[in-house]
């Protein structure tokens, strides 16, 4: 039976030539492109491609296994999934009801026609004195057009070596600052990557064709299309393509979105007859102000808005909309959906209303999303799939980490013994006494006294700035400390006294070596907790690595190396 299953998989390879089969499902190179991008894939070497494939497999297997063991049903994970789906519905509702109506059908059609191709383009830029380039030339706009037309006509009259000739003309005339690096070549360009007027011209050209001068904010462009090929989007199904077309077309209306969203929000408040209870807002604001002042005194700046809302009398009605009353408990619950790091700052009544407006508008967006069937749109479905996969992958890794075994005392002792010569052997140390003074003449005088038999400890106790109460004694130190004084200390033998040493801080020292201390092992009890942490992290790493590898076997992963 086992061999029959593998035979089926092998026949699937022969018939469909996929890149990967796992859990009886085939994935092609196009699935990899969707995840990481075709250009990114082609820009990596074979080893990096194998890593990407492994990541692709691991993410999907972790999701399959998460669902198999019911990880998505754990209360905390289910709550995270629910909250993220709600936020996704809010975002997609604004996309569908605010952004989409701003994009013309003509633009969507044009984008869909052109997005499935990409072109290897070259250009020559003839700029003028008011154009948006770093160092514009002195010529005016009319003169720039005349020169661009002349170049375009000359190029169109050529028959042979078009690419080489275009490069020569680019180097001679183009005012694109990168021309000397790329000779006018712009690489492969997909629809949506350049300004509208440039791409509108570029995507009408056939292979080997030049354009007439095309005006952008940077100047006049003569565009040459060297080659045309299918883009990374050409293999998408219609639904996936529609989402990409919308995403690219959306870039053209970015500047309008803020004002249009504000209009939409105002209409929502009117539609649902929304108003606030000012008296309750004053109570909440008073509590917030009190807490802010307390935080300032204690040096804390984090404000727990949810607790403050919950401290307000439970029956207090904050707002009315859609013929219903909403109190502090409802707002506190809605606030829990928003990560604490994104909670708004509230300083006055207006900022409090703005914060509450966000909560109300998000709630209304969910209602509008359901009412307008947004939750069944392909854009929402695609985003939900991504949210579920990302969350379940992360949670499965955490689950494996949490189930990793903890090191016991035997493991810790063994690690210590195996590594103590490399990691836990202290450096050689030296113990010295130091007479440190601020003036050289004093140091010289004290050095003479020592030379003629004066007691080092007594002089250090009387004159030294370093530990005079203990005869200038410095705790043992290893090589590399105390600059010049430290270097000299390791050159002396026990009982030797140094010459006068000039320190970096302009003080002067005389030292006597008390003891040279051979390297010693750091005791295990001092390193126990650190070794335990090291072994715990290693166990967690192995748990993830081996756990993911076991899934490859469990779900019969086969990789077709010949595809890439």
Give the secondary structure arrangement, pairings included:
Layout: H1 2-16, E1 20-22, E2 25-27, H2 29-36, H3 38-42, H4 46-69, H5 75-99, H6 105-114, E3 117-126, H7 141-156, H8 162-173, H9 179-182, E4 185-190, H10 196-202, E5 209-210, E6 214-216, E7 219-230, H11 238-250, H12 254-271, E8 275-276, H13 278-298, H14 305-311, E9 317-321, E10 324-327, H15 328-336, H16 349-371, H17 378-402, H18 409-423, E11 429-437, H19 440-451, H20 456-463, E12 473-478, H21 483-489, E13 501-502, E14 508-517, H22 524-554, E15 558-559
Antiparallel strand pairs: 1-2, 1-15, 3-4, 3-7, 5-7, 6-7, 8-9, 9-10, 11-12, 11-14, 13-14
Helix pairs in contact: 4-17, 4-22, 5-16, 5-17, 6-11, 14-15, 17-22, 18-22
Q: Helical element count?
A: 22
The 3D shape can be described as: extended
Strand content: 5-15%
What is the domain tally? 4
Calculate the terminal CA-CA distance, rounded to whole Å: 31 Å
Average pLDDT rating: 89
Given helix and strand content, the structural type is: alpha+beta
The low-pLDDT segments are: 1-15
- State the oligomer: single chain
Give the biggest beta sheet: 5 strands, antiparallel
Number of strands: 15
Q: Helix amount, in percent?
A: 55-70%
Report Rg. 37 Å
